[in-house]
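May I ask for a protein sequence together with how it folds?
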Amino acid sequence: MLTKADDYPIHQTPEPIAYSGSDRNFYDRYFFNGYDPEGELFFAAALGVYPHLNIMDASFCVVYDGVQYDLHASKHLKMERLDTQVGPIGIEVIEPLQCLSLTCNDSENGLQAELLFKGRHSPIEEPRFTQRTGTRMGMDSTRMTQNGNYEGWIKLKGRRFDIRSNTYRGTRDRSWGVRPIGTRDEQVNPDQGTPQFYWEWAPINFENYCSYYHLNADASGTPWNTKAVLVALDKSDKPIEMATQSSTLILQKDTRHAQSAILQFTDANAQQYSIKLAPRFNFYMRGLGYGHPEWGHGLNHGTLETGYEEYKLIDLDLSSMEHFHIQAFCTAQLETPDGAVSGSGVLEQLVVGPYAPLNLKEIMDLA
């Protein structure tokens, strides 16, 4: 059960607040993305708390006109988990489970923002993610996901973008639990096997619907954690839990990224739904620290440090593992028993190691 306290970074275990414990790799994290319907401007942000490493870090990113701009920040936590300001980047809970603010003030690099996220419905609690690496727990976490509207403004290199709630939508999530953070363990588990991780996550905003889908699967394609939900905003805030869900991806040549995707759902009454996703461009999750060689999650940069990067998307080497993890901005077409509706959102993908349904056989081979 989710409670208001679950919107604050004070978790101790993968369970909600009522339970406590400890693990060196425990984390507590915020994530946001936002976009206009056509993806002209895309932004993303994250803030992570790592109590046992005594580190808090954050990132704010913008994609505009084929360029990704990434701001990184890290500080010593000093055991104060509720001080969610890391240098120029800050997050504040205004109304738990409903409204949060996001700010960025990096005048030196021309990246500033004041944004307010408001949920379009109550957060969705995803199934607990538990996966062992050999004999050691590699992942044990809980996450809640919520689609919403944004309002406020972003300044990029002197240009101001007014973010209006009737056009800018996106998704935020909160996750907490155990997963690899900080420096890697020098002693590798001898039974961990070939590295393999398959992940899809597709939160989509439509005019009167919000949809969610995720898939973790093993090398054979067998799901070990998956869920699909549809919220009909004009009918009820109560989510429709799907009885079955699946996805079909066609990969872009020489990458591990989808060229197209179709999601298919069936509800408890055997009614069928489908979502066609058409990727337009990629946001690279390294901007938020995922797989970043210098700004990975939980690394110690000292009392307070910031970093900044910008790069053209077309110049990136997509065969490099640090560029495998993406959120592809997509336009979407939802088919329901009541008709069709268009929308937009992201298809997040991280594919490492073999995956039989896509004919991937090695750690890093490409389509």
Q: What stands out?
A: The first strand starts at residue 26 and ends at 35. The chain has a mean pLDDT of 93.
